[in-house]
Here is the input.
Amino acid sequence: MSLYTRLDRRLEAQAEGSGPIRGTLSLPRIGMIWLAANLVVTTLLTGTFFVPGVDFRTAFLMIVLGTAGGAIVLTSIGAMGTRTGLPTMALTRGAFGINGSFLPVAANVIILMGWSWVQAMLAGVTVDALVHSLTGFSNPILFSVLCQTLVVIMAIFGHEGIARLEPWFAVLMLVIIAWIFITAFTTFDLGDFQAVEPDPSYGMNAISVLDIVIATAISWTVLSADFNRLARTTKAGVIGSGVGYTLSTVTSMTLGLTAFVYIMLSGGTPDVFDPAVFVEHFGAPIAIVIFLSVMATNTMVVYGMVTSVVNAKAGSRLRFLPMALLLGGISIIGSTWLALLNQFTDFLVMIGAFFVPVFAIMIVDYYIIKRASYGRDILAARGGRHWYTGGVNWIAIAVWVLGAVMSYVWAYVWPLPVGATIPAFVLSFVVYLLAMLPDRARHAAEPSRHLADVDANEADRTAVENG
Here is the structure.
């Protein structure tokens, strides 16, 4: 039997194919997975956008508030995964319909692919800067490809491999991050950091910082149910992901913020979103953090892309391994497109515009319209409560379009004093709730049931009866 066949069978035995998964991971394990995942270079470098647009204290406060607010959305979607066993994009069938869910799935795969490219490039640029300082050799494209190749190799071992590796990555990264903070705050005191005067010409204020931080949480919510469905209990998933995500995001963004100001105080002229300048001032330790963070995070991103595709269609027979190899190969090729790094802030805005309305709709649909329970209909290929009109809930599609358009308008055309993310979420939440309340009244409450207890034949029979 070939290595490919053995690995393919093992992955299918671990339930890496389509369908729900019964979680087994404890609260600390889920917490460590999320902690490692978001100790990531993109989050770190996002912190470099804020100063000197705003002062150090304001930036830190907005990081904390925005992360806490975003974590509410992230854990709400994650809890749906724990309770049903389904990944995030499979859960969109509940609100968008069995066929309508293909639209958010497609958007998700495209955006996750973009994430994987950006992070692989940043890892490649960082490794290149370190190697160049030591040997004089420089080839950032080569190092980007090598980094992403390692990521794909780790991702094809599925969720069990990720659960084993992520905690070790987290521990090592935290040790090095602590050293960097100690270096910064023993060289300069907190008053020196706060003394850096805000410069309005950077076009940044407290609300725009808050908006970016919340958008970061939204960008991670696309994977929240994918990993929280691995939790043994809803409590373990909610607390583990909430604490892990909050600690890692605050730590990463504050690290980027602190390192950026440290370089300014040291007489340097750092560029935002440039990991090479950090390597220049902090050397190998920060390069190791960036490299490990990409390994930890991009493994989850590639895994999330694969689970989105294999679970896109109810009853799908797509297998995990060949899809991981296909999408992984595309992610490796795309990691050579270094010009994408110049568009990162626009990329974050695009994620917010696409997915803020989606998550508002999903939260309303599951917790209010469907009374915190998705039944076996969601596993059926057609028919049932989630069939709507030809498999599409056109109300959800319309609200999504409305929310996405207004998110873009409020970000670029008519900027609001409270940013774009929160208003777009509230608008989508309220409009979908009002439009779908009649559907809630037409259906009796159904007891919550983990969908791993429902087989495909039973789901199809029930959907026919209900359809």
User: Anything to note?
Assistant: The longest helix spans residues 102-135.
